[in-house]
Write a structure and sequence with these properties.
The protein is of the alpha+beta class. It has one domain. Helix content is 19%, strand content 23%. The strands form three sheets. A four-stranded antiparallel sheet has the order 1-8-3-2. A hairpin with a 2-residue loop joins β2 and β3. The longest helix has 11 residues. The relative contact order is 0.19.
Length: 142
């Protein structure tokens, strides 16, 4: 399974990692790509957003970084602890060697998203909602 994960920050990822995996005797690795319990973990971090330019080459938007902390995991086993941080499958593009180094796009929910995907996004971003809310009500929280 390939997990595309989105965290508020690295500290949130590390807390989730500590819950999902047993710490090795030598401690957790400090590099961005490593293997734990048979799972390959790629800490992507804050994904760059390129600057945009108009047809004359004038700057439209400055370069920046996505606000979330991205992590990808490739594992043969289900890792229940990371599932709440998963990006909606149809929205996730990969930024590592698992799928040819395509950029990750973390977008804001729109009316085209499924209700369950909106709820995942809200939970991942610390936004509280009532489980009985309709799609329009959930989108108003974004």
């Amino acid at each position: 399974m390939i997990y595309k994960l989105s965290y508020k920050d690295r500290a949130t990822w590390l807390a989730n990692r500590d819950e999902a995996f047993t710490e090795p005797e030598e401690g957790f690795p400090e590099k961005s790509t490593y293997t734990l319990e048979g799972a390959t973990i790629v800490e992507i971090g804050h994904i760059p957003i390129p600057a945009t330019f108009d047809e004359e080459g004038e700057l439209l938007t400055e370069a920046g970084l996505q606000p979330d902390y991205a992590v990808d995991i490739c594992s043969l086993k289900v890792i229940e602890e990371v599932i709440p941080y998963s990006l909606p499958k149809r929205k996730a593009k990969y930024a590592h060697g698992f799928t040819n180094n395509h950029p990750v796009v973390v977008s804001t929910p729109t009316d085209k998203w499924l209700v369950d995907d909106i709820k995942i996004w809200l939970s991942n971003n610390g936004i509280e909602y009532d489980s009985s809310m309709l799609k329009a009500e959930l989108l108003n929280l974004v």
